[in-house]
Amino acid sequence: MNIDQYIINDVKPLDKHSQMSKAQAIFSQLTYSHLPIVQEGVYLGCLSENDAHCFESNQTLEEVKYSFTAFHVKEDTHWLDILEAFAQHQCNIMPVLNQDNDYLGYLELKDIMEFFNDTPFMYESGAVVVVQKGSTDYSFSEIAQIVESNDSKVFGCFVSSYKDHMSEITLKLSPQNLNRVLQTFRRYSYEIVSAAEEDSFLDTLKERSDYLNKYLNI
Fold first, then answer.
1. What is the number of structural domains in the chain?
2. Is 67 buried (19+), middle (13-18) or exposed (0-12) by CB count in 10 A?
3. What is the helix, strand, coil percentage profile of the chain, to 5?
4. Which of 63, 95, 154, 172 shows the smallest number of beta carbons within 10 Å?
């Protein structure tokens, strides 16, 4: 992904000598979580909306520079790392710097999310499966082998949760042979956390359980 086309400058960065009232006015008109602050074109950090409303309107930004958060991405940062940066800093605006650390503009979260929505992981018709296994016991190569050995395809795969030495992996798979895929995961000691309704293994277990209950109640 080339992020150059997504870099915008609709809102100019504020100079550190600007008054807080200017930042407060911008925040009241827009839905941005942060505003970039510069000094003679050099990026200093971002002022958050929450902090801006805690200061007096006649203060200068330089007086509250201790509240700035200096997060950013580079112009060649991968889009997945950009998404991670948005999540880590809980923001909807991300300053972009070049290799010389010059301020180029900013990215909006909605634009990066639209790019994510255009990936096969989101738009391909398929099944979402969530499996779980010990964090030292699984590998992505094994997961791919399980899926592809059953003539299915992996559209996307990522670790969606990590807790108590257990990793939860979310997969987007082509829909063919899903039951075979799930049963193979079980044979390899993966726990199926969530899967499509087509999982006949669980349906069969439920049917047998219902039959046993009926038999015991005779």
1. 2
2. middle
3. 40, 30, 30
4. 63
Task: Enter the tokens of residue 11.
Answer: 């809102």
- 62-117 residue pLDDT tens: 999 999 999 999 999 988 789 889 989 999 999 999 988 899 999 999 988 887 77
Pairing type for strands 42-48 and 34-39 reads antiparallel
In the listed set 77, 94, 116, which residue is the last one of a domain according to the structure?
A: 116
What is the span of the domain harbouring residue 183? 120-197
- Rg (Cα) of the chain, in Å, rounded? 25
Contacts of 66 (CB under 8 A, 6+ apart): none
pTM above 0.90, yes or no: no
The token pair at 216 is: 């015991």
Instruction: Assess whether 9 and 95 both reside in one domain.
Output: yes
Together in a domain, 111 and 138:
no
